[in-house]
Specification:
This protein has no helices and two strands. By secondary structure, it is an all-beta fold. Strands 1-2 form a two-stranded antiparallel sheet. The radius of gyration is 9 Å and the shape is rod-shaped. The protein starts with a strand and ends with a strand.
């Protein structure tokens, strides 16, 4: 796993880890 984290809608604090 690369461990890259992409963030979307920082206001809601939503994000996911991209493999």
């Amino acid at each position: 796993m690369d461990g890259k984290v992409k963030w979307f809608n920082a206001e809601k604090g939503f994000g996911f880890i991209e493999r």
